[in-house]
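Action item from last meeting closed. Structure (213 res):
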């Protein structure tokens, strides 16, 4: 990755934030729990919910972008949605929860819930983590933040293959590190270089209480 220096701080071209998406097979889940796989998650045409007690990340950046969202299972219908792309070079996450509500033909409403990092000594660990955020609520603390940066020719790494684009020259911010507490967010997609989900639990069911919030 290329890097740049601003105000004496070395900034890598941003990787991205938070939490994997809840579409995963058991085999993929096992691989992620062992930290063996790169991760790229999305739920066709849907947002998913994520919560976390604490997210600590190094090399934070956030900037505007546009995702191409497929609204049919055949992939023949799509629309574009604005997102806030958040990123971390490295992140640790405690008490992570992710859920999605899906309507399944002939079955009805099904909820998929994923939990990991419930033990503070063994948090979720991610590298080059991106999340395309629709909404985020949290208490945040930043170190050496730089707001209003115009990012030109910005790329999103792995997510580009899914049709995501950024807004060249748009408003952005970056910080040496960031801590987010009491995180509640909805997102369209997540990508990461690697994800290690310690204590991974994945459940399917029809109870609305399975949603993270």
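Sequence:
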């Amino acid at each position: 990755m290329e890097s740049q220096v601003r105000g004496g701080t070395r900034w890598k071209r941003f990787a991205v934030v938070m939490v994997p998406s809840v579409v995963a097979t058991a085999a993929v889940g096992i691989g992620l729990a062992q930290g063996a796989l790169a991760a790229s998650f999305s739920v066709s045409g849907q947002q998913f919910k994520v919560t976390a007690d604490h997210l600590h990340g190094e090399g934070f950046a956030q900037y505007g972008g546009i995702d191409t969202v497929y609204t049919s299972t055949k992939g023949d219908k799509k629309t574009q949605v604005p997102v806030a792309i958040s990123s971390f070079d490295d992140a640790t996450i405690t008490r992570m929860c992710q859920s999605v509500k899906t309507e399944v033909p002939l079955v009805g409403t099904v909820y998929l819930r994923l939990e990991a990092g419930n033990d503070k000594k063994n948090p979720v660990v991610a590298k080059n983590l991106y999340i395309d955020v629709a909404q985020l609520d949290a208490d945040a603390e930043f170190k050496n933040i730089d707001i209003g940066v115009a990012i030109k020719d910005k790329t999103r790494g792995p997510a580009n293959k899914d049709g995501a684009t950024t807004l060249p020259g748009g408003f952005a911010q970056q910080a040496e590190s960031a801590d987010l507490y009491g995180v509640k967010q909805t997102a369209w997609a997540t990508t990461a270089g690697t994800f290690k989900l310690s204590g991974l639990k994945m459940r399917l069911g029809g109870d609305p209480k399975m949603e993270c919030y």
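Note appended to the action item: The chain has one domain: 9-202.
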